[in-house]
Design goal:
By secondary structure, the chain is α+β, with helices and mostly antiparallel strands. The protein contains 9 helices and 7 strands. Bound molecules: adenosine-5'-triphosphate and magnesium ion.
Length: 328
Amino acid sequence: RDNERNSPFIIVSVPYENLNTIILQRWGTLWLIVLLIALLTLIASSWVAQTIIRPVYTLRDTAVRLAQGDFSHRIKVTSNDEIAEVAHAFNEMAQQVESMLEEQKAFASNTSHELRTPLTSIRLRSEALRYETLDPETEQSYIEDIDNEVIRMTTLIEDLTLLSRFDAKRAELGQSEIDIVRLAHSLTQRLEAQASAKSIRITFTADETLDPIISSMNHIQIVFRNILDNAIKYTGNDGQIDWQMRPHEKGILSTIRDNGEGIEAENLQHLFERFYRVDQSRSRTIQGTGLGLPLVKSILDAYGAWIKIESEGKNKGTVVTIYIPSRK
Ligand code: ATP
Ligand code: MG
């Protein structure tokens, strides 16, 4: 018993009921904290979902719609963060794809229309020649019409082929040294008949010290033949075409000036669009498909050259300036 009395133990006793309430209180606080954390997490995650995940999903959905061929859909951009930047880039891409597709559709339908028209005319003439009794004069004129339509179709197909080659960057750029002054003389001579039929005078002046340019004879001929052909076509009888050439920044600067029907300001910007012709109804009397200038531009772009077309307005004539570098 003595031993017991001296042992260093303190016996503390707490009433059992009190302890129970304390534990219960602690548990309550703990649960409250857990609940609070859960609530905060919920709020935070839904905020993340709202601001980050939802836009990403929208982006994905739009991509899916785009892949299915719906290019008209755009993402609504409400925020101002990185996601918004992606959405903006996305919308821009959709816009570009949409307009490219529209351009292609228009191109295909224009092409088939341009091919169908001469075919219809050829068919009508050939049927008449075959089944009708025609006087020799009409017969001859029908044969000539067929010939002309075939030439038109051939030129159209050649232009289209060359254009698509330049589009695909598959056109071979020539490496021949071209004496541009000689080329100009031979071209003006070849167009002499076409010009004099409308009593149009063509003059050519050049600085004798022009360096040769490195290019393909065929491509350069297509360029200047188209510009001269336009100048003759869109200039009335007794008109005047002045062609000048001079050296300019390691290359040549050519200016072809006519005093013909001119081009109004609002039409100038469309001249390089495929199949564009200023006056569709009037154009029927002047033959053409509206592929000349787009082809000229594609060729010049490929050679690092440029073209500028200016006109002061209707019946004020047109000036076409072309720069071609001597070497690439
Ligand atoms: P294509 O050249 O395919 O036979 P086109 O001459 O109509 O047909 P472009 O050479 O591309 O086509 O010219 C487009 C349009 O620009 C022409 O239809 C014409 O309205 C206008 N244009 C071009 N050159 C001149 C010019 N010198 N004067 C007035 N209008 C011009
Ligand atoms: Mg033309």
